[in-house]
Amino acid sequence: MSVKAKKHLGQHFLVDPNISKKIALQFSGHLNCNRVLEIGPGMGALTRHLLEHPLIKEVIVMEIDTESIDYLTVHFPELKGRIYSTDFLKVDLKELIGGSPFAVVGNFPYNISSQILFQCIDYKDIIPEIMGMFQKEVAERVAEKPGSKTYGILSVLLQTYYDIEYCFTVDEKVFHPPPKVKSGVIRCKRNNRNNLPCDEKLYKQVVKATFNQRRKTVRNGLKSICSIPAEENHPLLTQRPEKLGVEEFIALTQWVSQFV
């Protein structure tokens, strides 16, 4: 019994067990988290090693491909009652699996990997760690520092709440079917920013608005969310958004709040 990779689901099955084990070993159990939610397990290449990981006491998997669910049910009886046939992007995670902390791991489908990370930000208070494999371009963008052309909205928002480490690169040839791009494994550990010293909703608006006009100055980018009088000045207004780190965006949001 095997599962046919489905293009519309972005499936590329990892077939090298050494790479699967190496990915699983990147899980650190940050903040004593020993519960793991794996997204898109497919045929369980990573699942197998997560179940054997010394720091993991419970593995939950979430999969929307019915063929994969049938495979997992047969080959991983130890997951009985912990295989969820649902869409990670559409479900209330606290309602589905409870409010106690869990890490999000996986060889994430490339076509929705950024959306998965945005969803994790929404549940940041109960997700102390995110670890897994992404398209290399996405993995590098997430871990990138200010000043780079690849640094963007996802970089800033994820780095606001997580410390991110790029672990290693994975070659195309270890997949079936092989993707057209390389992959990258990252590990994100929740930092100590529990409450931002600014309005969190406005913070996200400021980050998104400025990067939506990333070739222009911050002042120009902010026009879509507020009106800043011409005589008003702030040193960050003349910068371009990719030059600003998390602390600068927090400071900018605090200042902008008076004009919203």
Provide tags for this entry.
260 residues; alpha/beta; Rossmann fold; Helicase, Ruva Protein, domain 3; 2 domains; 7-stranded mixed beta sheet; two-stranded antiparallel ribbon; 10 helices; 32% helix; 17% strand; elongated
What does this structure look like?
By secondary structure, the protein is α/β, with parallel strands linked by helices. It has 2 domains: about 5-190, Vaccinia Virus protein VP39 (Rossmann fold), CATH 3.40.50.150; about 200-260, Orthogonal Bundle (Helicase, Ruva Protein, domain 3), CATH 1.10.8. The protein has helices spanning about 15-25, 45-50, 65-75, 95, 115-120, 135-145, 155-160, 200-210, 220, 245-255; strands spanning about 15, 35-40, 60, 85, 105, 130-135, 160-170, 175, 185-190. Helix 5 (about 115-120) links the parallel strand 5 and strand 6 (about 130-135). It starts with 12 loop residues before the first strand and ends with a helix.
